[in-house]
Amino acid sequence: QETEIPQEELVAKLQAISKTGYEERLFIRGDKTTKYGAAMEVMGLIQDAGYKNIALLSLPKQDQ
Q1: Rounded distance between C-alpha atoms, residue 52 and residue 63, angstroms
Q2: Tell me, what DSSP letter sits at residue 26?
Q3: Rounded to an integer, what distance in angstroms lies between the CA atom of residue 13 and that of residue 2?
Q4: What Å distances lie between residue 42 and 19, 60, 61, CA to CA?
Q5: What is the pLDDT of residues 8-44, one digit of tens each?
Q6: Could you give the CA distance from residue 17 to residue 31 in angstroms, rounded to a whole number?
Q7: What was the pLDDT predicted at 20?
Q8: Alpha-carbon torsion 37, 43, 44, 45, what sign?
């Protein structure tokens, strides 16, 4: 989905929507203004929610 979730609600939302356990792959996408530290913080929150299969997405160079 393309839903934005406030950071303080992320762990609770992810735990609530897990239907098949925590094996689903979650994708994190940001634009070129997204700071690396912010992306790592979100990855940490996702791991805190129980997910271990996390991927970062990027746009092809011509779309950035």
Answers
A1: 29
A2: E
A3: 14
A4: 21, 22, 23
A5: 998 888 888 877 677 788 888 888 888 889 889 999 9
A6: 25
A7: 67
A8: positive
CB-CB contact of 38 with 11 (8 Å): no
38: left (phi over 0), alpha (psi -120 to 50) or beta: alpha
* The two three-digit tokens of residue 55, written as one number: 């991927």
Give the helix/strand (H/E) hosting 41. Answer: helix 36-48
The residue assigned the tokens 């203004």 is 33
Residue 21 backbone class (left: φ over 0; alpha: ψ -120 to 50; beta: rest): left
Joined tokens for residue 63: 């779309």
Query: If we measure between CA atoms, which residue out of 13, 7, 2, 1 comes closest to residue 50?
Result: 13
